[in-house]
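Teaching soon. Got one?

===
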Amino acid sequence: VNEHRTSAGHPRHAHGSAALKIAMMSGTPVHEQRQIRSSTGELRNLQRISRQRSKGQLTISLETAMRVSKGELSMDEALEESGYDAS
């Protein structure tokens, strides 16, 4: 995001008005989707979250964590698919 001249003439901490100016600026159209590559740390964090959400009963696989990171599954769906029953 090009933030050039978004705070011109405003007090130093006028973040709201700067954000509004940025939101109203025209952008460049996106014509293709980018490949999502989650880092090992991000995937491990999703596994950690799955352990927390399942109260230590299970950890989702790396493959399932990858699907969660891509938005193909929600964490609840991943837990259910992995055999966790929240009831």
